[in-house]
Amino acid sequence: MFTIHKTYETTIKDLAEILDCSERHVKTVVRYLDNEGYITWSIQRGRGKKPSIVLNYSLDELELEEAKQYIRKGQYKEGFAMLEKMEGRIQLQFQEWMTSYIASINKSEEDLDILRYPFYETRLVMDPLHAISRHDAHMVKQIFDRLVDFDAETRQVVPQIAHHFESEDGKTWTFYLRKGVLFHHGKELTSEDVKASLTRMMPIEAPLQTIDQILCQSKYVVEFQLQEINYLFPRYLASLKASIIPMDIIDSSNFQDFPIGCGPYQLVRHDDEMIILEVFKDYYGYRPWLDHIEIIKTPFPSDVSVPILLSPPDASWKAVERIEEGADFIMFNCRKSGLLQNEGLREKIYRMIRPEEFCLPGERVADSFLTERSGKRPPSHDFSKVTFAGEIKIAAQQIREGVNHLREAEILKQQLNQIGIQAKVEAVDVNDLKERQVLERYDLIVSGVALGEDRLLSLIATLTSKRIPIFNCLEPDMQQFILEQLENIKGTDDDVERMMYYKKIEDYLTDHHVIRFLTHRSHIVYESNDHLFVNMTLDSNGRIDYRKVWKRG
Predict the structure, then answer these.
(1) pLDDT value of residue 520
(2) Is 117 helix (H, G, I), strand (E, B) or coil?
(3) I need a labelling partner for 440 at 20 to 30 A (CA). Which of 23, 86, 396, 411 fits?
(4) What is the Cα–Cα distance from 430 to 437, expressed in whole angstroms?
(5) How far apart are CA 526 and CA 528, in angstroms?
(6) What distance, in Å, lies between the first and last C-alpha atoms of the chain?
């Protein structure tokens, strides 16, 4: 009836008939729309002249603006409900606007500094023991603390909840706790909380299964007696999984949705719309500068896990590529009876895999979990056909719905087909892969690992974890070789020597064609030397550590 940006003569009476309402109500509607700029309403002077109306927005544009208004008011669920009704082109415009509008650091009326950003709706696992994804680990790091921390720059273990630790023989370790460390619900942390937290961890994490007993010598002193000498032991306790949990809520059914720790931020909201972290005012350590973190859950994929840094605010910012330690990889299941126990067939498949075809823009071909070891081995491919009766089964590891290695598994399937091997791909939950009967259904497993701040400990955990399909895919003699090298690592306090033993393990696995490294992931961010915000840099999870951010002005 009316086309946008064209002038039409009309009357209040005409509009009342079109809108099927009273003339009095039409006057109110017209006045509102004109004041808000949705229409231009002009009264023409002169007898017999009708008012004129100009529509300034199309219906799509009106819906887009209405959705924006909901977001501006913090009514996110209503705004996203409108988004679902829009056509794809308008949805993209909304997503671009919302990313730039929300991803920012702002001052509130209470003079609080708030970091707000959108994040694709996902089921976060905030129990430290069961955290899987990078974002899980990032949230755990803000809410919980551990006995000690690992300084990635100095490569040293530093005090955290424990102000001091010691051992005379590498078997008995004593940790002295800080007094007055409070959990978010007000309870003081004691040695009993430490014992309960780590006892809970022991059955799941292999490195802690060598603990013979944990003794609470006093309220603030805890002693660990190990079955063997292990100079790496304090570094295990810097793992996010070793976060300390108050023993009175450790088995609470509500713990997953509302975890309680003693870290610098406490969770104050976790629902369908958003997650809010609030600075813990009674934190025993240095108080962070940011007061609130607001993570808006969106119904659309959004790569703004690094708010503010994903696009340059102005020309003074420069792009910086961060290559992630760790790699995507293919594991050959040597424990499945028959097929890949044949090293000749393993080598044939190994040599035909072309990692460069798995790379997304910005990624690098990997020859190791460590970036420093990659790019030094010239490719040696063999694409000759294989006479093979049967079908190879490929498992694509899946963390949660939509977060998996299906893309890489399909590329592998295509490469196998090119040399005459038929393959079938299935997405398999990461927790199911640790079950022997599930793992034995698959010949090849496509997986990936991102290393933490303590690279050596992350590598050991990668090799020994039941959740990561490496150790359980190896033949007994291969497992024995790895265990021997791990004993060598634990028996020395020299980091150079430790890394030498690790590299022996990695070379052994590649020489026996049981693991094929694919790619190192990368992050592109923007940095500015004179920006007001300091420490807006990525941690090992590809996230900004909220605790370290501060502002000059």
Answers:
(1) 94
(2) strand
(3) 411
(4) 14
(5) 7
(6) 54
φ/ψ (deg, to 5) at 100: -70, -30
CA atoms within 13 A on the CB side of 120: 12
Q: What is the mean pLDDT of the chain?
A: 85
Q: Distance between CA 398 and CA 445 in Å, rounded? A: 11
Locate 30 and state its tokens.
């017209």
DSSP bridge partners of 326: 450
Report CA-CA distances (Å) from 321 to 37, 49, 307, 308. Answer: 44, 65, 16, 15
134-168 as b/e, with b when 16 or more CB fall inside 10 Å? bbbbbbbbbbbbbbbbbeeeeeebeebbbeebebe
Number of H helices, E strands in the chain: 14, 25
CA angle 466, 468, 470 (to 5 degrees): 90
What is the rounded CA–CA span in Å between residue 470 and residue 479?
A: 10
Distance CA 50, CA 34 (A): 17
Write down the residue that tokens 């921390």 correspond to.
Answer: 149
Amino acid at 53: I
Helix H or strand E segment including 217: strand 211-218
Residues 377-385: contacts with CB under 8 Å, at least 24 apart? 379/354, 380/351, 381/351, 381/352, 381/354, 382/348, 382/351, 382/352, 383/352, 383/418, 383/419, 384/419, 385/419, 385/420
Q: 276-281, long-range: CB within 8 Å, 24+ apart, which pairs?
A: 277/142, 277/143, 277/546, 280/184
Residue 174: both structure tokens together:
């004593």
Residue 23: how many other CB atoms lie within 10 Å:
12
> 374 is written with which tokens?
């990659």
Strand order from edge to edge, sheet including 39-42: 7-9, 52-55, 39-42
What is d(CA 533, CA 526) in angstroms, rounded to the nearest whole number? 12
pTM here is 0.71
pLDDT in tens, 336-391: 766 788 888 889 999 999 999 999 888 899 999 999 999 876 666 777 787 777 78
278 and 113 in contact (C-beta within 8 Å)?
A: no
Give the HSE-up count for residue 131: Cα atoms under 13 Å, Cβ half-sphere.
23
Nearest to 473 by CA among 515, 505, 412: 515
Distance CA 52, CA 11 (A): 8
Residue ranges in the chain modelled with pLDDT below 50: 303-310
Helix, strand, coil abundance in the chain, percent, nearest 5: 35, 25, 45
